[in-house]
Amino acid sequence: xxxxxxxxxxxxxxxxxxxxxxxxxxxxxxxxxxxxxxxxxxxxxxxxxxxxxxxxxxxxxxxxxxxxxxxxxxxxxxxxxxxxxxxxxxxxxxxxxxxxxxxxxxxxxxxxxxxxxxxxxxxxxxxxxxxxxxxxxxxxxxxxxxxxxxxxxxxxxxxxxxxxxxxxxxxxxxxxxxxxxxxxxxxxxxxxxxxxxxxxxxxxxxxxxxxxxxxxxxxxxxxxxxxxxxxxxxxxxxxxxxxxxxxxxxxxxxxxxxxxxxxxxxxxxxxxxxxxxxxxxxxxxxxxxxxxxxxxxxxxxxxxxxxxxxxxxxxxxxxxxxxxxxxxxxxxxxxxxxxxxxxxxxxxxxxxxxxxxxxxxxxxxxxxxxxxxxxxxxxxxxxxxxxxxxxxxxxxxxxxxxxxxxxxxxxxxxxxxxxxxxxxxxxxxxxxx
Length: 433
What we know:
The protein has 9 helices and 14 strands. The strands form 6 sheets. The protein has a 4-stranded mixed sheet with strand order 13-12-11-14. Strands 1-4 form a two-stranded antiparallel ribbon. By secondary structure, the chain is of the alpha+beta class. It has a domain at 36-83 and 283-433: paralog of FGE (formylglycine-generating enzyme). It is globular and about 70 Å long. Strand 5 and strand 6 (120-126) form a beta hairpin.
């Protein structure tokens, strides 16, 4: 009986390894079908071609947005700007991960050092299943380092030290990996003469695949002082004190975030969803900031040659009401219904279903800023990026912002208008989606 069972198992194993099909090219069998899900809070923008650039007179002959016909692939885009409450989820994740990392140094239960098969995980990952016990005196003592010291505490109040909320993230630099000199040599089985610029701005030899994996570290807490720093002789202390954390502002667009913070948020958001989907063996395309060309295409709402996302040439509708949150008149910010940023989605969406593509807050894009970028970018999925090194000149750290904001005049609300800000700068009028 045992001999018969062994023969049966052996036959079954050999059969499973045998070529399938009838000798015809049929593709790998048994693959699951795929239906793209709708990401939460996002809108699908179909692929298309349009004339990119200004549709109005060029202010002061800046010539930084000449017309150019381009094509972009389909993509998903957030229906609204990222809100305070959404960004706060990122901040709280960073806070909790730091807390768990500190406790894990004294308690191994808070890390996972082996996978389900007993293989070591290096470096170990955090165990989110074990709750932090606020009544545990030892844990409270460990977490004291996350709060302001006695010297920094205001009236002795125990407050989280937001200066310690750092998020470390990684990405693969595919553009440097694609350079011919950096390709893997299959004859010598090595990277012969490639060089890459690492995240510190140093030129280093390509040793292995690890050379293309970049690392960065950024403090994730918004700059709440930007409300005061941006405007001289203006009383904005209440916004500094409450805009980011108060529940009344939960659905307002997050501001005071740098380009690097926005990029880190996108990477965290990708990992958040992929960790959930990996249980089913699927992953998604990375979340990222939109390309400049994608942003303008989405803002136009399939209305080519229109000046504004709503299609008309004026910032008012037929009844004389303003169609976005901006600075409509000299010294008058409130005629459009808002003094500072207002809750996202307060105005009508464009024809793609996207809200606030003009006004409220300007938005970071993925692209580096260059006045002549339109002249050398490709006409298919135009893209110009530059990873500025720490010692680069400020001009090399400029990133494109789009959409205009609550403090801008109507010209900057036009879909073709483009401007810039420095990647390490946080402003009270810049957010992202």
